[in-house]
Amino acid sequence: MKVIPVYIEAGISGFESPAAEYKELNLSLEELLLQHPNATFFGLANGRSMEGRGIFNGDVLVVDRAEHVSNGCVIVANFNGCFVCKIIDTEKALLLSASSEHKPIEITSTDDFQIEGVVNVSFRLHKKLPTLLSCLV
Amino acid sequence: MFGLVDAVSFYARAEKVFDPSIRHKPVVVLTNNDGCICAVCPLARQLGVPKFIPYFKIKSFLEKHNVVVRSSNYELYADLSDRMMNVIARYSDNHYVYSIDESFLHFKNFSSVNNWHKYGHMIRKAVWRETRLPVGVGFGATLTLAKAANHASKKLSGFDGVAVIDDTSSRKEILSRMSLTDVWGIGNKLGKRLSILGLNNGWDLANQSPKVMRSQFGVVVERTVNELNGMPCLQWDEIGQDKQEIFSTRSFGKRVTDEYTLKAALSSHASIVAAKVRRQGSLIKRLVIFASSSPHDDRYYKKSFVYEFPMATDNTIKLVSAISYVFDNIYKQGVSFYRCGVGGVELESSLFRQKDMFTVSVNNPPLMKCYDEINHRYGRGSIEVAAAEKNDKWAMRRNFLSPSYTSKWSEIPKIIC
């Protein structure tokens, strides 16, 4: 039999809420969106080359540095001093876009290139927040 | 086994984490108010940029070599430090964060580690992968040996970021290549005195008789000698010992010439010192109060006074009235003040206090407790003594501040798609 704990409280109170013990079950967006909170950072998408993968200009990218990189996944990389979001082709060493208007980019030995993390989650505010967009200016 | 993990030029490297455009450039970080250089990345060190030099003295050199200059971005460093410590914590059953960029590890039930060198590289790799910060890792049988191994991992040739002291030969190899002052706990003065005895390096020190060291230099050096020989003498709680002196001091964002602002700044420092003193349960017997112009001015002005309390105190109000008491001796019209500060220099424990039959206590624990709790709950500065009223003249100057990439939504990094 499960016993509902009754906490001792000072002061006058009416009936205790029957929902009181379920409080801790509240949903947390962080829990849903972040696999490795410690190794994750947020970035703002700037450009249209990833629209085929559902990433639009002004979306927030959730970049996970601890996630395993596999062929064909969406990554954020440092490419010659800029953060870019592309699809990685590990077999041919290419950065692919999800748009017919953008050609694949070959990664050569003269390029400064490091993978920063994997983008398994991105999200969009349908009513744009001015604070969020101010970093695109 | 103990370990010490610390970040390599942490502030300068932290600036590179979210700004890939400066990853391969020399970077320096300035202190509060952009006064001096406080951190230099390896690339800037190769150029010969010294630490702790005033920024204005080296400004043209930095411009000539395209060195990236940043103000201290404490918001960013605090966040990266937390992340780094969280990764490190996964690798031992006990850890102690020693400073913003160093953490001691204690392995009590880690018999599963049979190759410490490999294990050190695992830690390095994980911290690098998850935070993009490079760390050095040292292992040893005592805290002092772990610290020595950590020094070797970063500073001595032949080590690749990890060093292990686990037998006599590795201990001798590392300690004999360390100067006396590189040994943890040996400061400049002590190092000089030891070198007069003919000691040259850490290995020489390790071979001294602990008893002789104790009689000549005290118990601290005796412990160091024992620790260097693999006998643990220091515990976690001892490395976080109470401070013997507590200071609050800063340079002004803009020069200060008026009496009112200087007094307010000193009063504010006094209340910071009082709060810090209360946090560690100490009382102040002597208070140093000082103000100065810049040493680079034509006529350098510096005045400093020591105020002795009849009875040691931690009462903010008493500290602030001490300021008023000596203020006329410090302030001089026409001087443009650059820096000021307050320090408690003779501290007593509030638990083991010598009581005085004829002096009435000036302490007011209930009031101070209330004061601290208000500031704790509603943020520092919610309640202040009126004399310490804030003024924009001494707000921090941070002209080269990088964005708060991880703490403000309006400043998250831009990613090109």
What does this protein look like?
- The complex is a heterodimer of chains A (137) and B (417).
- With 137 residues, chain A is mostly beta strands.
- Chain A is 7% helix and 31% strand.
- Chain A has 2 helices and 7 strands, in the order αβββββββα.
- Chain A has helices at residues 29-33, 130-133; strands at 40-46, 60-64, 74-79, 82-89, 94-96, 105-106, 113-123.
- In chain A, strand 3 (74-79) and strand 4 form a beta hairpin.
- The termini of chain A are far apart.
- The relative contact order of chain A is 0.20.
- The mean pLDDT of chain A is 87.
- The model of chain B has no long low-confidence stretch (mean pLDDT 89).
- Among the domains of chain B are: 97-108 and 119-238, DNA polymerase, domain 1 (Orthogonal Bundle), CATH 1.10.150; 246-388, Dna Ligase, domain 1.
- Helix content of chain B is 39%, strand content 21%.
- In chain B, a hairpin with a 6-residue loop joins strand 2 (27-30) and strand 3 (37-40).
- Chain B is of the alpha+beta class.
- Chain B has helices spanning 10-17, 42-46, 55-64, 74-89, 116-131, 143-155, 168-175, 188-196, 202-206, 210-217, 219-228, 236-239, 259-279, 316-330, 365-378, and strands at 2-7, 27-30, 37-40, 68-71, 94-99, 102-106, 135-140, 162-164, 246-256, 282-292, 302-313, 337-349, 414-416.
- At the A-B interface, strand 1, strand 2 and strand 4 of A face helix 4, helix 5 and strand 13 of B.
- Strand 1 of chain A pairs parallel with strand 13 of chain B, so a sheet runs across the interface.
Short description:
Chain A is mostly beta strands. Helices cover 7% and strands 31% of the residues of chain A. The model of chain B has no long low-confidence stretch (mean pLDDT 89).
